[in-house]
């Protein structure tokens, strides 16, 4: 069968974060998914080494989630969330709150990670304003951070390709901590690198420059995924927590990737034993079966706004689809699976075998670092002279052609499979990457 003959017209869709011309010259189309596998449009089985886009933590097309969504779509397709509610929205918020660290039990629903980040930044500003500190408007992000694509998210984010086109329109009062990636000090770390906690002290320098009274929040990914799997150095997050608490600055963990089991706990905050004031999430909250996101907020932060001086609507923010009935149904079914199947525990148990399999690539052609935590690994390749990213792009393509989905960013290959993966499939992923590395120049 000629796969190309079956292709739809590719010209109208402007694809996100994609080299459109290149893709349309050599399309990769997925047709269906089940469990650990995609089936491509040309009928090939593809092992999902990335949980889609770090999001299908419970594996694909879980019956309980599919039927919960279908049932809800037939019962009540949509209900406005402004001035009206529906029971599932409240139940979903209760279920999310039940999985958050103690104290973060107020939940604002969004539809994506980007919206969660922008929502969290706004909550931070609203909190300080409600407490009579409306001058606290400065936000601190981190180099190489990824916080989605809203103007707030790219402003606090630290990936220059995502910022440069829009540089004149970024939020004005933003600073960035240095990133923690250092191959000389930390290459081939297993779990948290030993070196780098001192980089959190840069926050004191930034605070001294602007004065704490002007700073609303610090936002970081506890484990930076999209930039290429940067695991926080031992003691780093603790130091950020200590400094922010000392200066009355809110700490936001962007857990769009890490929440819901990626590190073997409900959140990275649990894993690292560091509790922020707000946690942003999306992806795994609904197993990506329906777009959904949320911000979990410390009760004091919520109460300062909701019990604050503003009468009537306390927080002028929200989305037509906040707590959409289908999303609420998907969230409830998803969180039920995580609990019933103990998928976070499963990830924790598999993380040792995953670590060893990932580090078996040390010494493979082009590999200059392997790093990992939970069920995430980053494999950094030496870039080709004058063509950064080209080698990893070829690895990605060859993996896909041979039945394995990985991700790449720059010259870093990322692996983050669904938490239902088994040891044999873990071995298969890294063996396959090893084979492909031998084939690329
Ligand atoms: C840490 C983090 N924040 C925010 C986002 C943006 O999420 P979305 O693409 O759902 O807007 C992502 C996406 O990968 C992410 O990894």
Count of DSSP E strands? 15
Bound molecules: pyridoxal-5'-phosphate
* CATH structural class of the largest domain: Alpha Beta
Uncertain residue segments: none
Q: Specify the CATH homologous superfamily of the largest domain.
A: Type I PLP-dependent aspartate aminotransferase-like (Major domain)
- Count of DSSP helices? 16
Helical fraction equals 25-40%
- According to CATH, what is the topology of the largest domain? Aspartate Aminotransferase, domain 2
* Major pleated sheet: 7 strands, mixed
Provide the domain count.
Answer: 2
Mean pLDDT: 97
Strand content: 15-25%
Our Rg estimate from Cα atoms comes to: 22 Å
Output the strand order for the largest sheet.
4-10-9-8-7-5-6
Gap between N and C termini:
31 Å
Q: Structural class given helices, strands, pairing?
A: alpha/beta
Shape: globular
CATH architecture of the largest domain: 3-Layer(aba) Sandwich
